[in-house]
Write a structure and sequence with these properties.
By secondary structure, the protein is α+β, with helices and mostly antiparallel strands. 46% of the residues lie in helices and 10% in strands. The chain contains five helices and four strands.
C-alpha cells in the first residue's frame, strides 16, 4: 500500500479553522464604532444643556408693564382728541362773539373814535331804504340846496382834516357832489392821489384834535342822512358808509 505524502486531514481542518478565526478578527478590527462621541446629544452620559427659563412672577410683571403702557397710550390719544374738540369749540365761540361785537360796534358808530388813525376808512353798516320812504323823508323843494362849485377849484386848506365820501371816476364824482349840494351838504370834487380818479370831499375842514367835537359829530350825521337818500335814489349807489377823514397835506 502506497504512503500518502500530503498533509493529514486533521491538519487541513486546523488550518481552515485558524483562517476563519483570523479573518473574523481582521474584519471586526475595521468595523466602525457606533458609540456616539462624548458630549453629543446621543451620549447618555452627556451633561444636559441649561436653557434660561422665566418664573411666573417675571411673566406677570411683564404683562402688567405692557398693560400699563397700552393704558397710557390710550389715555394720551383720548386727551388729544378731547383737546382738539374743545379748541375747535372755543374758536367757533370766539368767532361768533367777535362777529356780534363788530356788528354792534358798527351799528352804534356815528363818527371815527378818538384813537383812530387819520386816514383809516370808516365801515358803517349799509342802510336799506326804499325809494318811496326816501321820497317821504326828503322834501321836494330842496330849500337847502347849495350853488354849483367852480370846476378845478380845490377849497381845502393845508393841515386840516376833511371827510372823504368816495374815490371814483370824475363823472361819478360830479354826480355825487351835485346830489350832496342839492341837499345842503358842501361837497367838492378834488384831485386824488391816483391821477385818473377824483375824491369827493366835504367842507368844512377841522383839526385832528377836534374830530370828536359836537361840530364834527353833527357834520358826520348830516353825511349819514344824505348817504341814506343817495342810496335810495338809484341802484348801485352807496350810502357813504365807508367815509373817513383825511389830512390834507397840499
Amino acid at each position: 500500500m502506497a504512503r500518502r505524502t500530503g498533509p493529514a486531514l486533521y491538519e487541513l481542518l486546523g488550518r481552515r479553522t485558524d483562517g476563519i478565526t483570523s479573518g473574523s478578527s481582521s474584519r471586526s478590527s475595521v468595523t466602525p464604532s457606533l458609540t456616539p462621541p462624548r458630549g453629543s446629544a446621543l451620549d447618555a452620559n452627556a451633561e444636559p444643556i441649561n436653557r434660561p427659563s422665566m418664573d411666573p412672577g417675571q411673566v406677570r410683571s411683564l404683562l402688567l408693564a405692557a398693560i400699563v403702557v397700552i393704558a397710557l397710550i390710550a389715555a394720551y390719544l383720548v386727551g388729544v382728541s378731547r383737546g382738539e374738540r374743545v379748541g375747535r369749540s372755543s374758536l367757533v365761540s370766539e368767532s361768533e362773539a367777535d362777529t356780534q361785537l363788530l356788528a354792534s360796534s358798527a351799528s352804534n358808530a356815528a363818527v371815527i373814535p378818538p384813537n383812530a388813525s387819520e386816514n383809516q376808512p370808516r365801515r358803517n353798516p349799509p342802510v336799506q331804504v326804499q325809494p318811496e320812504v326816501a321820497a317821504a323823508i326828503e322834501p321836494a323843494s330842496l330849500p337847502n340846496a347849495l350853488p354849483a362849485t367852480d370846476a378845478g377849484v380845490d377849497p381845502r386848506a393845508v393841515g386840516l382834516n376833511y371827510f372823504v365820501l368816495a374815490s371814483t371816476l370824475e363823472p361819478n364824482a360830479v354826480k355825487i357832489v351835485e346830489f350832496c349840494r342839492n341837499r345842503g351838504l358842501d361837497a367838492w370834487v378834488v384831485p386824488d392821489q391816483n391821477g385818473r380818479l377824483r375824491e369827493v370831499t366835504v367842507m368844512p375842514g377841522f383839526e385832528y384834535s377836534e374830530r370828536g367835537s359836537p361840530t364834527v359829530r353833527e357834520l358826520d350825521e348830516r353825511i349819514r342822512n344824505v348817504g341814506v337818500l343817495f342810496k335810495a335814489s338809484g341802484p348801485g349807489n352807496g350810502d357813504f358808509g365807508d367815509r373817513y377823514h383825511k389830512l390834507f397835506k397840499g
